[in-house]
Structures are given as structure tokens and as C-alpha cells.
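Q: Got a minute? One more chain.
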Amino acid sequence: MSPALQTITDIYASMEQGNIGKLLTILDDSVLVYTAQCMGGNRRGREGILQLISLFYRPGSRAPKTAGHYMEQGNTVIVLGDIRMRDWESIDSPMSFADIWVFDNNRIISVVFYYRDPELLCEYLSRQ
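A: Always. Here it is, folded:
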């Protein structure tokens, strides 16, 4: 396993435990974050990624992300998984996601967050 793939695998395992410290240590100061407009749109810097990460990995989140598959191509790692959205009757509705992490000199320089239906996800998160 390459260092980039191992790093991302470790980051997701840590985030699923509520620990984002490892992520902070490898983010480039001017990391570019790309996401849907309803999720705040594109951002630059650590604060931009931390705002998004906290939606899914804070304790008690009603929309936790779970990584399922990891793929690597050069300096890019792609993570595929599901976000579990629970309605008020506690019925899970999974939504697919793809996170694309790009490295340069062992630092994360950009992240793209894709969601199957970003508008539905934004509506769901606004009700939390």
C-alpha cells in the first residue's frame, strides 16, 4: 500500500472514531475544497474542509459517512462509500459519496466531495 493510500485509510478510520487530528497534520495550509453550492461551495484553507468534515464526523451526527472502497491513481486517492441519513422514524436511507484527495509532497492539496444528490443531502442536514 502506498503512503498516500495508507494515510487516507488511516484518516477515515480516525474520523469514524471522531478524531480529526491526523487529517489536520497533513492538510496543506491552502488546501482547495470543492463541493456542491448548497454545501457552501468551493473553499480554500483548512477551515473550509473542517466545516464540511464536522457535518459527518461529529459525535451524534445523524448523517455519518462510512468509507467502503479506496482506489489510488498516481497522487490521487478516491474513497467511495455511503452517508447514512436517518429519517424521524430511524429508517436509514443511504446516499453514495465519492471523495477525491490529491497529494503533493505528502500533503493534501485538494479535495473534491461528490454526493449522489447534494440538494437532498443539504435539505436533510438543514433539519438536524
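A: The radius of gyration is 14 Å.
Q: Perfect, thanks.
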